[in-house]
Amino acid sequence: NYQRIAADHVAHWRETGLNPFQSPDALKQNEDMTVSLVAACTPAGGSILDVGCGMGDLLLRLGDDYVRTGIEIAAPYLEVARDRGLTVLDEDVESLAYWDDVPGQVFDTVVATDILEHVLALNAAVRGLLHVTKPGGYIVVRVPNMEPVSWLDEHNLGYQFVHVRVLDEGTLRVLFGKIFGCEIIDTRLLGNSLHCVCRKPC
User: How far apart are CA 62 and CA 64, in angstroms?
Assistant: First the structure.
């Protein structure tokens, strides 16, 4: 299902240069905010992991001031990101809690944009994000705010599913703060996108 979504995305992007699922203005505003929040959290020369990095757009925008790595499960996205010269690994966020085969791979900042609404095992995904974040490091999450999952059927996109849950600020505060013990540093709502910045306990 996700491989089909990625293939359609990449095909549309190669033809038009655009994302078929988000308007260019909204996408730029969201990524501007994500870049700003990540830069505020990450020391110069620090390490960043982009979880579900897609074609690597965010990693490219963050630039060479950081040590950048991405993970992704969709082959069409991996191909584009690697063609762009990015370090991107074929890994699943829900399995990151067991990611011990790459020495030293814990990061100053871990980014997960437009990911948590897709995953089937939400707690496993958050556990994975924490596993690869340094003690005292930051997790920057972006999700659609209160977006109903029914839009898939309404738009007849032909996928089995796209988003599998509705998220909001309260949900993220409970999930990261109360359940997983992180400090909630900041939340930002822009349009229908919500950012949440968390700090992992030391």
Answer: 7
- In whole angstroms, give the CA distance from residue 54 to residue 74: 8
- Average pLDDT value over all residues in the chain: 92
C-alpha to C-alpha distance for 201 and 175, rounded to whole angstroms: 14
d(CA 48, CA 38): 9
Q: Which two tokens stand for residue 128?
A: 């994975």
128-152 pLDDT, tens digit per residue, is 999 999 999 999 999 999 988 876 6
Cα 160 to chain centroid, rounded:
21
CA 87 to chain CA centroid, Å, is 16
Q: How far is CA 89 from the centre of its chain?
A: 14
Distances (CA, A) of 104 to 34, 55, 88, 107: 25, 24, 16, 9
Average pLDDT over residues 159-164: 82
pLDDT in tens, 76-123: 999 999 999 999 999 999 888 777 655 457 899 999 999 999 999 999
Q: CA-to-CA distance for 92 and 132, rounded, in angstroms? A: 12
- Residue 156 Ramachandran class (φ > 0 left, ψ -120 to 50 alpha, else beta): left
What does pTM read for this prediction? 0.93
CA dist., res. 7 & res. 9, Å (int): 5
Is the Cβ–Cβ distance between 69 and 104 less than 8 Å?
no
